[in-house]
Design brief:
- The protein is an alpha/beta fold.
- The chain is built from 13 helices and ten strands.
- It has a ten-stranded mixed sheet with strand order 7-6-5-4-3-2-1-8-9-10.
- It is globular and about 50 Å long.
């Protein structure tokens, strides 16, 4: 089977203007990628078949050449996505993002400031809502994303209602995963029962007209059996965790890792080409063999799920069992 990095997550800066409680990027070098370096990476990715790039950080909009890098990606035929904390998007920025035909995801962790701000910082709820309003007004394809922690599980229903009122295109719920360098992140983790409860609420809203509801979590697929039936296959990977399978992440110091939540070095662009790393890295080769995954190898849904490898890594190995999976004990 041929593996193509359809999605590149490119951290163009390690700088951020917030200090979220569960941030995986807090250990990144607080510097910006040189514009020529970013363009070279995008060119390498395009040759490998990359079709989407998520520009992230840190806060990607802090990079002084964000729009130049975005335009370069667009000209390569790569769809530009921005993941932002929603503190810097005024009407002018929203118009520029619209001109790029970018897809923007705003991180917002509650339906009100009382729930969101303790996680993301004082005033961040109001800033994010203002950014969402600007984006929607300018016709930018916009998503709201909640990072699910134990303290906002009870707010999922209200959060979805907020997304409907804001008229965003998509509402995403994704669990926090423990970060080894951030002990506080483990204290925030929801339980498996919390995750199932959130999926139950999401599934009730999944077919709302005008807004897509769901999760990028691999476990969302095995929760919704109808999705499993559509894409099930018994001989090769058909879905689930994309880390090292259909996506790759590059940090500001040019370290290549499978996923932002799986900070295992697969290689460095200071030493090798992206193509060489993608094709030969031991880390990537192992991530493409789900028979190696504890708890997955005997599961009939291994080719459409595979669990979250970042969550597994937080328990000691990216080949370990996803700690929130309710199957196989």
């Amino acid at each position: 089977m041929e593996y193509i990095p359809y999605l590149l997550v490119l951290h163009i800066t390690g700088r951020c203007n917030l200090k979220c409680a569960y941030c995986y990027a807090s250990s990144y070098d607080k510097k910006d990628l040189e514009i020529e370096t970013a363009q070279n990476i995008l060119s390498q990715a395009a040759k490998l078949g990359t079709r989407h790039v998520i520009l992230s950080g840190g806060e990607a909009l802090l990079h002084p050449d964000f729009y130049t890098i975005s335009e370069y990606a667009k000209n390569l035929g790569i769809k530009v996505h921005l993941t932002s904390n929603g503190t810097l998007i005024d009407e002018n920025n929203a118009k520029e993002l619209k001109s790029l035909d970018a897809i923007v995801t705003i991180s917002l962790d509650g339906s009100c400031s009382e729930i969101n701000d303790p996680l993301r910082g004082g005033g961040t709820f109001d800033s994010a809502i203002s950014s969402i309003n600007n984006l929607v007004h300018c016709g930018v394809t916009t998503s709201m994303r909640m990072t699910l922690v134990k303290d906002n599980v009870s707010d999922v229903h209200n959060y979805i209602d907020l997304a409907k009122r804001q008229k965003v295109n998509r509402c995403i719920i994704e669990r926090v995963t423990g970060i080894l360098d951030n002990p506080e992140s483990f204290e925030l983790e929801p339980s498996s029962e919390d995750l199932i409860k959130s999926f139950e609420i999401l599934s009730k809203y999944a077919n709302i007209e005008g807004i897509k509801m769901g999760s990028n979590d691999p476990l969302w697929l095995i929760y919704r059996n109808n999705l499993c039936e559509k894409i099930t296959g018994n001989d090769h990977i058909r879905g689930g965790c994309t880390a090292g399978v259909a996506s790759v992440t590059i940090t500001p110091d040019l370290t290549v890792i499978p996923c932002p939540r799986l900070p295992v070095k697969a290689g460095s662009l200071n030493e090798e080409s992206l193509e060489d790393i993608w094709l030969t890295s031991k880390v990537f080769l192992e991530l493409r063999d789900r028979d190696l995954f504890a708890g997955c190898s005997s599961c009939d849904s291994k080719y459409i799920c595979g669990g979250c490898r970042g969550a597994a890594y937080s328990r000691g190995s990216y080949l370990a069992k996803d700690p929130h999976c309710w199957r196989n004990g």
